[in-house]
Amino acid sequence: MKAVLKKERDVGFVIEDVPMPKIGDDEILVKVEVASICGTDVHIYDWNEWAQNRINPPLIVGHEFAGVVVEKGKEVKRINIGDFVSAETHIYCNHCDMCLMNHREVCRNLKILGVDTNGAFAEYVKIPERVAWVNPKEIPHKYASIQEPLGNAVDTVLSEDISGKTVLITGAGPIGLLAIGVARVFGATKIIVSDLSNYHLEIAKKMGADVVVNPKEANLREIVLNETNGLGVDVALEMSGAKSALSDALKLTKFLGRVSLLGLFDNNVEINLTDDVIFKKLRIYGITGRRIFETWQIVSDLLRSKRLDVSPVITHEFKLEEVEKGIKLMKSHQSGKILLHP
Ligand code: NAD
Ligand code: ZN
Fold first, then answer.
1. How far is the CA of 91 from the centre of ligand 1 (A)?
2. In CATH, what class is 2-146+310-341?
3. Annotation marks residue 253 as catalytic
4. What percent of the chain has pLDDT over 70?
5. Which residues form the Enoyl reductase (ER) domain (predicted)?
6. How far is it, in rounded angstroms, from Cα 200 to Cα 172?
7. Which among 60, 87, 141, 195 is least buried, having the fewest CB atoms inside 10 angstroms?
């Protein structure tokens, strides 16, 4: 089958014919219909420091996808051939203390699809039955392929109730953009979005942002205070991984507010804990992955009911072989989600 490989310990991907995956007794084989490119795939392509320490080539990359089950192992009971599935990409162990306490998102033995195991940028992918999520048939395949990042957005937005709240989202990459739509559906009263890319801010407006700000071109602090009666927002969602955006999120959240952190930082960050967190009595949440499978149920219902329209976030679709074109476009900040068709 055709697959996108990280073949050498170096920059780039290669497209190659590789043997079909052989499934184990507890695994299923999925024919990939659509996959989508994530920032992690870009890091693996670029061979950054994280990738050098984590990835063991040769590896089939990619983890966000939707497809149809074509084969199943002897022990597979819940999933049937012909099911239309996506996958929770965090392959949890189901026996550590965190898994036993129903917090599989922080499994201590976590393996990630397309990072630690062969992934989905291929004609077929094998996954353990336990991470398969059966999609309702009426969800379009291309929307089903972005449920994993949509799950990040849902888990971040809903780490506390959002209804009736004013919200600042720092970072309008694909996940921040999806979070705008989610916050709107769940009843946020005002959504202010910051990003350094005006292309992303245009999509943010389409997703329902009330106010968009490029902090390089305008005074974010002044705008947020103007929009919130001088108080600051009730909720900040940090979705950029930029230090200055973290500072914006903490400083512009009002007393007794909530800050949820999804963005990942390359290095340690310095914050004024005393003034910006403690004396304001902020509640701060670290978010990793999604709740398995509570978040998937919400994501599925949002798409099935058409309450959430994710179409503005999907800006490009390419053939699987054109993956490099997609990666380059993502690096130029002139794209939202990019889909790949095997
Ligand atoms: P992305 O890199 O595409 O988006 C980041 C956005 O932040 C970009 O649009 C960028 O222009 C913007 N940005 C950069 N500096 C900014 C600043 N100072 N102020 C405002 N915006 C700024 O990433 P994504 O795929 O949307 O993911 C968002 C973040 O979440 C990333 O940091 C990613 O690593 C992280 N992430 C975390 C998890 C988790 O489980 N915690 C999962 C997936 C992604
Ligand atoms: Zn575990």
1. 23
2. alpha beta
3. no
4. 100
5. 10-340
6. 6
7. 141
Per DSSP, the three-state class of 65 is strand
* CATH of segment(s) 153-286: 3.40.50.720
Residues of the chain with pLDDT under 70: none
pLDDT value at residue 5: 98
Please pick, among 43, 103, 316, 341, the residue that the annotation labels catalytic.
Answer: 43
Does 333 participate in catalysis according to the annotation? Answer: no
Cis peptide before 293 (omega within 30 of 0): yes
| pLDDT recorded at residue 95 | 97
Cβ burial 300-319 (10 Å sphere, 16+ → b, else e): bebbeeeebebebbbbbebe
Q: Which two three-digit tokens encode residue 91?
A: 């392959």
What residues have CB less than 8 Å from 15, skipping those under 6 apart? 2, 3, 4, 5, 320, 321, 323
Please answer whether residues 235 and 167 qualify as being in contact, where contact means their C-beta atoms are separated by less than 8 angstroms: yes
Ligand 1 pocket residue status of 156, Cβ below 6 Å: no
Ligand 1, atom nearest to 196 Cα: 11
> 147, 296 in Cβ contact below 8 A?
yes
Helix (H), strand (E) at residue 23: none
Q: How far is the CA of 35 from the centre of ligand 1 (A)?
A: 20
- pLDDT score of 45: 98
**Are the CB atoms for 15 and 2 separated by under 8 Å?**
yes
- The ranges assigned to domains in the chain are 2-146+310-341, 153-286
Q: Find the ligand nearest to 96 CA.
A: 2
User: Chain-wide mean pLDDT for the chain?
Assistant: 98
Two structure tokens written together for 57: 């080539």
Query: What pLDDT sits at residue 222?
Result: 98
Tokens of 233: 């927002």
